[in-house]
């Protein structure tokens, strides 16, 4: 990818979806997750299809994380039903640090997490009982998922991102309204032009309100 090849896509174009090679807009977290799926020394094959797959993968992983957070780690429980499953999970968790110490191999870390997602979803869907795993293992699962998804990889819930984005947009809309009320049309127009350049269209309504949408 390079300017000389005329195949450069700006981040603002990815976030707005306003590019002929893209079929939709993609969130910053999707882009981050897409990059993490490949080792940083390897070639990253960029395409709209690959980004769509990354978006679905991130959604599946995060939903499993939210399901995991709801599993009780303490309290009364029956004896472990399947020692083999618990042992496999403990091996997968132990390998997470090994992979990160092996030249930051984020792709292998994610592969292990997705293997664990199978067990989490199996509990959610009632395919295996929730007391299959000991409280200590569930506690370790919760800590490991939080450490890697949030603390190491810097991933966040899409709902949290949407709420933050909406708050920022409301702030900008309020600042533009204040500028227009003070007849500071230079500032008002500048805010609108900057948002348009980022792929966000601001429309003035007849009643004085403002609406915005991602182009």
The SS-based structural class is: mainly alpha
Oligomer: single chain
- Strand coverage percent: under 5%
How large is the radius of gyration?
A: 22 Å
**What is the H/E order?**
HHHHHHHHEE
What order do the strands of the largest sheet run in, or round the barrel if closed? Answer: 1-2
Known CATH architecture of the largest domain: Orthogonal Bundle
Helicity range of the residues?
55-70%
Q: Please identify the top-level CATH class of the largest domain.
A: Mainly Alpha
Describe the SSE topology.
Layout: H1 11-16, H2 28-36, H3 48-70, H4 83-101, H5 106-124, H6 135-152, H7 158-181, H8 185-197, E1 200-204, E2 210-214
Antiparallel strand pairs: 1-2
Helix pairs in contact: 2-3, 3-5, 4-5, 4-6, 7-8
Characterization of this structure:
By secondary structure, this protein is mainly alpha-helical. It has two domains: 3-156, Orthogonal Bundle (Isoleucyl-tRNA Synthetase, Domain 1); 159-214, no CATH class. Helices cover 61% and strands 5% of the residues. The chain contains eight helices and two strands; from the N terminus they run H-H-H-H-H-H-H-H-E-E. Strands 1-2 form a two-stranded antiparallel ribbon. A hairpin with a 5-residue loop joins strand 1 and strand 2 (210-214). Helix 4 packs antiparallel against helix 5, helix 4 packs parallel to helix 6 and helix 7 (158-181) runs antiparallel to helix 8 (185-197). The radius of gyration is 22 Å and the shape is elongated.
């Amino acid at each position: 990818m390079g300017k000389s090849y005329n195949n450069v896509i700006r981040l603002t174009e990815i976030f707005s979806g306003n590019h002929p090679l893209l079929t939709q807009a993609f969130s910053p977290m999707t882009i981050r997750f897409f990059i993490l799926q490949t080792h940083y020394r390897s070639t990253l094959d960029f395409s709209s299809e690959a980004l769509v797959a990354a978006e679905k993968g991130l959604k599946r992983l995060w939903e499993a994380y939210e399901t995991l957070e709801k599993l009780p780690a303490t309290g009364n429980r029956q004896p472990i039903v399947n020692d083999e499953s618990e042992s496999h999970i403990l091996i997968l968790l132990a390998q997470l640090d090994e992979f990160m110490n092996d030249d930051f191999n984020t792709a292998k870390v994610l592969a292990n997490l997705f293997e664990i997602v199978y067990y989490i979803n199996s509990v959610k869907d009632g395919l295996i009982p929730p007391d299959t795993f000991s409280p200590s293992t569930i506690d370790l699962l919760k800590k490991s998922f939080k450490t890697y998804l949030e603390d190491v990889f810097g991933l966040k819930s899409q709902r949290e991102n949407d709420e933050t984005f909406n708050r920022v947009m409301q702030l900008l809309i309020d600042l533009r309204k204040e500028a227009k009320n003070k007849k500071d049309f230079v500032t008002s127009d500048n805010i609108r032009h900057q948002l348009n350049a980022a792929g966000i269209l601001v429309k003035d309504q007849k009643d004085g309100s403002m609406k915005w949408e991602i182009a």
